[in-house]
Amino acid sequence: MKFNYIPILFSTILALSFSSCKDQLADLNKNPNSAEIPQPDYLLTGAIKSTADTYWGVTNNMNSSLLFIQHWSKIQYTDPDRYIFTNNDLQELWASGYTKGVTNLNKLVSLADEQGNTNYRGVAKVLRSWVFLLLTDAYGDIPYSQSVQINAYVNPVYDAQKEVYFGLLADLKSAQTDLNVAGKPILGDIVYNGKIELWKKFANALRLRIALRIADKEPEKSKSVLAEITSEGGTLIASNLENAQLTYSTSPNQNPVSNLFDTRDDYRISKTIVDRLRSLNDPRLSIFASPTKDVTTETYIGIPNGLLTGDASNYGLTKTSKPGAYFLAPVAPAVIISYAEVLFDRAEVAARGWSNEDAGALYKQAIEVSLQQYGVGTAAIATYTQSAAVQYEPANFRKSIGNQKWIALFGQGLEAFAEWRRLDYPELVPAVAGVLGGKLPLRFIYPGQEQSLNGKNYQQAVARQGADLLTTRLWFDIK
């Protein structure tokens, strides 16, 4: 895990046309292997773009977590849908997260300190916390405390997942202190265009997410975090216009899903979610799924997860549904955290008795907001939320929130995977021809290179956490 910062930084810069300082790129990048003075706006843009691409891209989303969570399925080359992975297949999140994410964001923190711009420092901490959260949710124990000082530790230790979550909560609280609406402006922000008040809301939304991630193991800590957020003013994402997301552009900066489907045709929507949406008369079916190319009686047809390649092919490329046009569009956003998710989280906090809000009302509002996010009309929303099948069940908030949150998180494979493991809903059936003995994946396996490059610390993490297998349950997942 020894990272070469300079080539990574400049390869990131070269790939970007998002930067508002594009005209200065040639002057800055005189030598791709020898940095002169890194610019904070370039670093910020690069870290956002690279992490969003990794989060929304092929390896960690389309070819793994979206299959595990049964939003998508595979119609060709079905090994990943059967949970067949080598220890090199799931390394991109790790490699990109540390090199293009943590390393560049650490540098942004130091530049912010040099320039006396606490807003750059606060934004960097928020984004770095998100990167670390993706990593620990996927793998479990990870290098965290020593990775914040990566130049001092060539072989960083793996921190226990509990300590990572606690550390991130402290980092996000610190970020709130750094973020100052009246402070110096920032450039290169392709999420909120420099609006610091929205970064403060984003930070709190991540704190709320983590507080619930640990709620079953550390409820007192969760409640203390919620109390801190409230005492600080408690601002959270409050509309779909405030969703934390990267809205993509046209080629070569289009959404990774759009980019993949330009040249490949390996994926279909999962039969699991098609059947669920159809049974609920959910208006999002026509948004999440494309009509079959050939005329079929049902129009939207999903593929069962985990078929043998020949069995999947027999369904026919033209008789099954790709993801919907919304998700295939070049400009489709990579959603990091949405207003709907925040409302579901607030509903759960209320259901646990940790707030005085109305859990059922917040649950209903979360569904409405998710539908509005995709442009569903008022009448259709009213019909859907009044149906018996989607009514809130106070006796089992996990079931109600888990089932609807799974739908609302469609496309966000890594987050949906984490929440499914935490809430245990929906009740998914393992892949048809899965290779895990009738079990579903519960984590990513560590990159194979860790065994050779950071072997001692890797072995200690495995001894503490459990075997480096897809089926090893992580600390937060209590089942």
TrEMBL record:
SUPFAM superfamilies per record: TPR-like (SSF48452)
Coiled-coil residue spans: none
Protein name: Starch-binding associating with outer membrane
